[in-house]
Amino acid sequence: MEPTTQRALVVSSVFTENEMAAKLGREAYSYRFVFRAFESLLRRWGPIFEITRPESRLDYALWRARQQNLDPIHLSFLPLQMTYLTHGAPNIAVPAWEFPDIPNTDFQNNPRNNWRRIADQLSVIITHCHITRNAFLHAGVKPPVHLVPVPIPPEYFQVPPWERGQRVVLDCPCYVFPLPEKTPDHQPNPWLAPSTSSTNWKERARQIYRNSVKPRLPSGIQKGVTFGVRTVRALRTARAEVVEVPYPVTPKLELSGVVYSTIFNPYDPRKNFQDMLSAYLLALGDCEDATLVIKLVLCPELAAEALRNMIHFYLGLGLRHRCKLVFVNTYLSDELMVELARGSTYYLNTSRAEGSCLPLQNYLAAGRPGVAPAHTGMGDYMDDDLGFTIACHPEPAAWPHDPEHRLTTTWQRLVWWSLHNQLRNSYDLARKDRNRYQAMALRGRQRLAEFAGAESVWPALAAALDAAKPHVQNAPIAA
Amino acid sequence: MDSSAICVPGHIASPDVPIYVDVSALEEKHLTGMGRFVAHLVQALVRLTPLGLLTTAKGRYIPVCAADLEESDGNLETWARRLLRRPRRNLDAQSASASAAIYTALRPGARCFRREVGILYDFTTLLLPWTHGEQSRHHFGTFFAKTAPLCDKLVAISQSTKRDAQWLCAANNDSIVVSYPGPSLCVHRHAYPNPVARRRNVILVVSAIEPRKNAPFLLDWFAATEALDPDMELWWVGPHAWWASRELVTMLKQRRSGPRGHQIRLLGKVSDRRLCQLYQQAAFTIYPSLYEGFGLPVLDALLHGAPVVCSYHSSLKELAGPGVFYFDPCDPATLDEACRALRTAQPLVIEPSNLRERFSWGALAQTVKALCA
């Protein structure tokens, strides 16, 4: 009698847990968060073997699983253009997608960019929201398309309700604006010669070179010295720009009053932080007890430059304000992220498109209403019962991985005035109507528990995995 | 050989009309895998039918028949250079339209011949794009997405390549036939004819030093592994691929200065004769490639009686058999395991006749000729 085999999963992921901090903000990084969210439920289904670089490693992992008397399925947490199709097991893909249609051409002469072609080779497709599922169905793909929301980590459901007057301090450095007003430096009398005692040695050396040395140098050497000095100065400036954010760091993040939090990668053009900043500063600029915390999701190599660019944009708005604006660009542990939710009043989202928006789901589960549009993936769970929805309408857009940025699809343009007003409304509710706020928060918890609690998600997930056809060795591959 | 490799009924080519073969891969300064493939294919094909060799010299071809060409087991590059120096004739459109042609790399965007057969090696430009230059990615992308379907038939050099074509190539999968190549050296006899003693302490690696061949992984493993005897040496044969980055080469040099650095020998490019000798000397070979269309060095090693420790993926799985031990090319612990398994399995007997029957240039040539009919 043949021994029975146990089912198992070989998971392709974009990078490992150890690489998380170093790879935040890189291509397809959000898929790692999705896999993490599913991991405990997947282990309920069967043992997991995780690999990266599936082209080179997947078949070996399948082979080893079979040597252990397991019957594995390949589960890919990668965008379809990065998904590798093995012929050694059924392939299930878990693509995140937030547009009403999927790419169906080999753009850039790369068949892997053709999601329709890749999808037709899969055994099962798992999507997280209706817009994604509908996009695949609209394309007429062959395999079954299952809808399985991304499960919310249970610790978010345990976050205590927000209370006006609460104060939460996070041990994480941050940049807080507005900066204190500087007292003007003492200006010396420009008509008097500078006293040598107040001139530092570098300036003194420059004066000596300019007045006494340079006139006596041949022109070729003069030019060489000038070139050398400018080159060194440029290198120093470049290094400083790469690693330094020239604003004061506040060592701890103190959260009190009405706190809006938002979490995103600023290089993602969907995130629309420009509208977020202008609307927040204009809607709540006179509210000293309002705070917007912007947590950037980026690896260290990219974080400093991104932050400088965002701050540059913010300062360029030229808006004076008394509300607080806080930037956090360091990696936060899962525990600190939950603490950030605890210290927040609302989650703010101003995206043009979302696959799920895991942070908004998490905050709603934590009893923190949203200020967000109810479009794309968020439309599955967000409405006026759970927060303050922002009006929007479709506009042309490009698929994210199309380097030519052709306008082949649509996303949503937010109505700025609606965003402005909903920020004001949300602030007033939090300050003035505790009962309504708490009712809204409670509805969020309940709705998200039904939508994306682990026990709600599990049956759909199990059904999707069970739907993968068993692998038959050496079976002819369907065209 | 794939069972769908049947003659196409209908036209029967005149014995005087050659089959044209694109041999532009032979014009490279050093013959790489593709160049060696083309050279051996030509040698096998010319035994069956006259050929007209097409190069980058437009409008001209080199006519050859079996009597014109000597064997090349000694030095394939010298043979290729002599071949390309042979006299050329003008190619006219009428002759072309009556003939068949074999495209051994890319192909033009329009049809030129009565019957056109292409070769599919691998899809690494799509699967591992970071291991190729932009130009290669562009050219092969165009081939896979647009021009491959212009071929009447395509020959995939492995089952893996044919399966990859199913989702990575616009050509109809029914038009793809699988036919394996033969070895890349010592096709008829050993290039090094003298007896060679195998050295217990030598591991041989044969591949160009380019990102897909995974040199940093292997050298890191060799420097740290405890699965080998302390006196083991790693000998690497293969040129730097022309676009191997400066960073890769620098990294290789740094690894050579590590604790076992003196036991790593980068031999560069060697003659076929010397390589034959090395294969017969080595205790075993390691092939840590990240993806393959076939894996000629694995076959070459086995035919020289050298066991192989290689990656388990793509076409390398099809070389499974006595003397082959597999590992995950990104997990050094599995390479340790494979080396220990090899040691435990000694003494190993690798039967070359089975391999020569399965992997034969003659069989490939027969298939290709049949598809040209």
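The radius of gyration of chain B is 21 Å.
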